[in-house]
Amino acid sequence: MKESDQEWQRCKEDITFGWKSTEKTSTGPKPSDFIKVPFKEALNLVATRQVYVSKGIAYVQLSKLTTIAQAHFRARLAQELSKASKFLPMIMKDQRIYKQLMGLSNHNAIDFNLFEPKAPTGDDKIRLSDLDFYSRKQMPPCMKTLYTALKNQHHLKHYGRLQLGLFLKGVGLTLDESMRFWK
Q1: How many CB atoms lie within 10 A of CB 177?
Q2: CA atoms within 13 A on the CB side of 61
Q3: Which of 45, 76, 113, 147 is the one with CA 20 to 30 A from 26?
Q4: C-alpha atoms less than 13 angstroms from C-alpha of 83 in its C-beta half-sphere
Q5: Nearest to 174 by CA among 128, 124, 139
Q6: 53 - beta bridge partners?
Q7: Alpha carbon of 61 to those of 12, 69, 116: distances in Å?
Q8: Is 28 helix (H, G, I), strand (E, B) or coil?
């Protein structure tokens, strides 16, 4: 913004209310310390009341511009990852990439295994052999994460084991199958 901007002159007190200077010698905010962006671009800052909004324009301090850049980056990354996920089966055919992704899978609770486990038969009871199927299709996200981490890392902390054990008991895994599972 420029000092001669009519908007700056009209809204100077409102825009600079609560403004904290980063320079000790600064006498006050200057128009060059702010940038005008569309309201939708600064929603995180608007939510925390760190900007002045007038007629669909948010007046953002230059020091707060990184927040807007981070929001753009996250949105773009999510968009590109969703596009890339469509090509995952084709990418997994390359053995070099497959080994890298499986290495990632072993260190995180991410499951890159694309092969579907067998569907369980019509019994009412859940069996140990059906856990892979149920973990992909019907477990709540918290238990799916614990189960996947246990399968990949072969280790869970005490409370994670406790929670997963109680969950498996609750869904109907028998004591014998539970003992085989934990071995």
Answers
A1: 18
A2: 16
A3: 45
A4: 6
A5: 128
A6: 58
A7: 13, 13, 51
A8: coil
CA distance 134 to 15: 55
Instruction: Round the average pLDDT of the chain to a whole number and report it.
Output: 76
**Residues 65-78: tens digit of each pLDDT:** 888 888 889 889 88
pLDDT of residue 123: 62
* Residues near 152 by beta carbon (within 8 Å), at least 6 away in sequence: 105, 106, 107, 108, 109, 111
Q: What is the DSSP string of 49-117?
A: T-SEEETTEEEEEGGGHHHHHHHHHHHHHHHHHHHHHTTHHHHTTSHHHHHHHHHHHHHSS-----SPP
C-alpha to C-alpha distance for 78 and 68, rounded to whole angstroms: 16
Confidence (pLDDT) at 129: 73
Task: Assess contact for 7 and 35: CB atoms under 8 A.
Answer: no
**Contact residues for 71 (Cβ-Cβ < 8 A; gap 6+):** 41, 43, 44
pTM, full prediction: 0.45
Sequence length of the chain is: 183
Q: Which two tokens stand for residue 76?
A: 């773009």
